[in-house]
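Standup notes, protein team

Yesterday: finished cleaning the Flammeovirga aprica JL-4 set.
Today: ABC transporter ATP-binding protein structure.
Blockers: none.

Input for ABC transporter ATP-binding protein:
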Amino acid sequence: MSKKKTILRVENFSKSYEEGKRAVDQLSFDVKEGEVFALIGRSGCGKTTTLKLLSGQMRPDEGAAYVHGERILGPHERLLAGHDKIALVEQDYNLFNHQTVADNIKYPIRRTTKKYQEYRLNELLRICQLEEYRDTRPKELSGGQKQRVAIARAIADEPPILLLDEPFSHLDMALRSDLRRMVKNIAIEANISVVFVTHDTHDALAMSDRIGVMSRGKLIQIATPEEIYKQPKNKYAAHFFPHCNVIEAEELKKLGIDKPSGKYMARPEWLEMIEAESADHTAVLRHIDYFGNASYGEWEVDEGSKLWVHHDSFATFHIGDKKGIALKPDVDWWALDN
């Protein structure tokens, strides 16, 4: 298998809105052909600013980004902001409500031959599952359908890079799942690199090839979804995924575990319940988050630390139950950077 080429390279991106306060601080990363790359972080971490810098809508104070080695120009350097090889889909979609879905999608390729327009339209209607809405106007569509039209229009002229700003934030869980699959299929079938920003870890884990975790304008870790989940760099990255257990070495001693000083992490599914008589401690169930196919119990250990434990759908526990907590075989507490 041939090694995929780097299509997008970002070098030391920085941007300040206020004197001495950087929204984006020395960001550097690359994206391969056909790769889905997610930037995750809490509100205000610099995700959307990064997209605007990449799309050419905003000028970086420092650094540059390159597509196939060609620098992305800022709005001060060209008549129309942006880059010919980069398409951006923003949260408001910016569709033409007076035109049909077909007209919206064909707009970027309106200067090509009628034959190509029809060919490309039919291809995009298929890829984005919009065949039955060809002659519908956007105002008659649901949020998920509008999102599909916006993506189809963005990739109509076959840009190698697609940028998505919080693409699924307004959609329910079922629609999110459908659209995640669609975007992933687009990346594979059309060999388009996708860079999207989100605060939702489920979206990032489900469709990304790699994830960049952002905090206060900086990238603190870039890794595969599995690595980010199992081997987060620090407490911030670990806690970005819910029901995470981060505990000091001193507290681990209550569980009969000796570790060098520092912080350690374990996911809820790495832990299991055992009979209290077999443990060196007593854990009391204080809270349950129920999700149907599973639940997460918050157990307080010896009136001190609280740990989340994953319970399968057949397990039945009640508030006040007393058990012991043990680490499952073949896993260990993961050491975090302070």
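Follow-up from PR in the comments: The chain is about 25% helix and 30% strand.
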